[in-house]
Amino acid sequence: MTLRALVVGGGIGGLAAAVALRQAGVETAVLEQARALEGVGYGLALSPNALLALEHLGLANAVREHGARPERIRIRSSNGRTINEVDLKAAGLEMLGVHRADLQTVLSEAAGESLRLDARVLAVRAEDDRVVAELAHGGAEEADVLIGADGIDSIVRSELHGAGEKRFAGHVGWRASVVFEHELLRGIVSESWGPGGRFGLVPIGHGRLYWFAAESAPPGRSVPPEGAKAALLRRFESWHEPIASAIEATEEATISVTDVYDRKPIRYWGRGRVTLLGDAAHPMTPNLGQGAAQALEDAVVVANRLRDADDVEAALRAYEARRIPRTEVIVNRSWQLGRLAQVQNPVGRRLRDALFRTIPERVQRRQQERIVRTDLS
Predict the structure, then answer these.
(1) What is the residue range of 36's domain?
(2) Is the pLDDT of residue 373 over 90?
């Protein structure tokens, strides 16, 4: 008898899970509350482990067609001085800057008829050897397995663990994508650190740039009366080029601001025939650029565990045992890096920058490899 799975949430992780599960011979339905998958979002810097997961799904080349491959990761000070740099090519590591909407399109096309839109899940419950998802329109879906991939405010997680508290990272994030090219952006993904803020520049292919700014501020930051663009130009006017030029080239309406949260790691994710995936399981700050990568890894590993599984519950617990230690380390490291990068004290910033400048590139490569080298079997 063919195993059937329900995946709650049609984001990057949920769509990847659908692709991986179908390839593993598991009949799959993705329940997504949106009425249409629109090309929303901004950019992503897909790390080598994200591309490895996409290779497992057979989708890496399709995603590569949309993006840009940087050769270096560079951290700068606000005046443009290099604090630290990793030569990706020399390290044998591949990274890809891509628009989130392009990645979503590739995954949704591969997921095909598995995706069901306008299917908001209100609750999940176990019934003997089945699991049931109750839908907002009054119906219900049954399956052998249910995977919550419905984000940081996951309904499935709240059913298993209660609502819990999110952890505010101490900063808000401004983001936008823009058609913009500059000679200082060629082959480089960069992040610049200054007093109480950071600014990232990620080429995402076909002449497009994704930029983000992290600003130390309390939660609930609203767009200033002068507008986001004017406020950001004022905030970063003294920083190195092409930061101000990139902001100037951006349309006001495309700039968004969000509070940055994660959740502290938990000891177990699922129970019975239910488990979690992606931000529902291990929401993390974006400081290591690992959110999408870890969701993609989850998708490959859970499908591998369910492939030809005789005991579904044992397979899900094996998936969690494999994934929880790795994701816990990454959640914590991402949190710590964010706190370090957002240091506001001038003496602290000087000490931080001096420390990073003294770290040899070979050490930086090893640190990168601990995150991006992984076995997805």
Answers:
(1) 4-70+100-166+264-341
(2) no
